[in-house]
Amino acid sequence: MQASWADTLWLLMAEGEYYSIRDLINISGQPGSIVTDIVNFLTKYGFVKEIGTTEPLFTRSSIVISPTQSMNILQCMTKG
Fold first, then answer.
1. If the chain, 80 residues long, is cut into consecutive pieces of 10 residues, what is the mean pLDDT of each piece?
2. What kind of fold does domain 5-79 have according to CATH?
3. Distance of CA 44 to the CA centre of its chain
4. Separation CA 62–CA 46 (nearest Å)
5. Which pTM does this prediction carry?
């Protein structure tokens, strides 16, 4: 299975480290709009946490499975 960009960005974030959107753009090499959309998704579903500061910082949650693995589990559960 090919990793999604959500997985890739999530995996690039070291646990316990804090990243700005600019940091994530630099380490991923992706355009800002794509990184922002991915970070919004990851934040909405609890894969990363946002720390409220002047410039928002993001840290990886301690969830042990990737976004794609979570999606696959949910799809299996809904198929019955």
1. 74 92 95 94 91 89 79 79
2. Arc Repressor Mutant, subunit A (1.10.10)
3. 10
4. 9
5. 0.80
